[in-house]
Amino acid sequence: MNSSTAAVAVGAGATAVVALAALVTAAGSNPLETALSMAVPAEYRALIEEAGNTCPEISPNLLAALLTQESAFNPKARSPAGAQGIAQFMPSTWETHGIDANRDGKRDVWDPADAIPSSAQYLCTIADDVEDVPGNQQHNMLAAYNAGSGAVREHQGIPPYTETQNYVRSITALADASPEGGNTSVTTTQATTAVNAAKSMLGTPYSWGGGNSDGPTTGICCSPNGSSGTTINGFDCSGLTLYAYAQAGIALPRTAAQQYAASTPVQPGQTRPGDLVFYGSGPADIHHVGIYLGNGWMIDAPRPGTKVRYSPMDSMTDLYSVGRPTPNKEI
After folding, report:
1. Do the Cβ atoms of 293 and 258 come closer than 8 Å?
2. What is the reported pLDDT for 25?
3. What CATH architecture is 14-175?
């Protein structure tokens, strides 16, 4: 993030992650027109429902997804870059765009009653700023919230920053989560099927970009360290989880970050076999995923040069969250 122009910074570690239920929308409806249906802390629900209707470009669900991404609803969140509060405003941006929404005589970035409406108002302001930029207006608005309107105008769309691209992708996935019906997350039977499918692939080589719903495939070039999967038939980490859950009739997105966004965070002590284990510094920076087996173990495709195997959860130092897939559709 360019901290001199960005409004916010991704905050919140694993301890701040909250459960997020799925979005309720009628088939074929526009998610931006729906009312709030995410599971958010009760004390913020009315604020988000009201602020999420500030302008046509946002919705309660979109605002809830953004706050989940920014701070996981932690009003005391402070990022290393200096972003503050539940909506992670940079001080300079708050000075310009913060409002005294609760009319108590002060604009307080640490008070959700001010920060949540200010976040919605700021989204509307930058939506106007980038309305003439080509591409998806909502995506451009979210990119501008993360990287600044100037960067979106300069690049005529989402800037080529990995963080910003993942930011937009993650919030969109959260806001467009699966319809809530009888199943808001996978059943125990589906989770068991996924675990068994993953176990059936033990010993399969790691292949960067490899794997789909049908099984191992040759991958692509190249990983950040230059490893290519073009000559290796196998799985990368998210390819394995995608395959495993496809056998249970659950379609997961392709990347680890997208799979995090499509899952419901699980609180410590409530994990169960089949949950997905995510590693990274934040929602936009998830770089690895495995399938939880119990007793601190998971099955994963760790990295180039390895094979699908059992790994302890502490085999990487940046464990971020455990999530339970939320079915998007049946295959």
Report:
1. no
2. 26
3. Orthogonal Bundle (1.10)
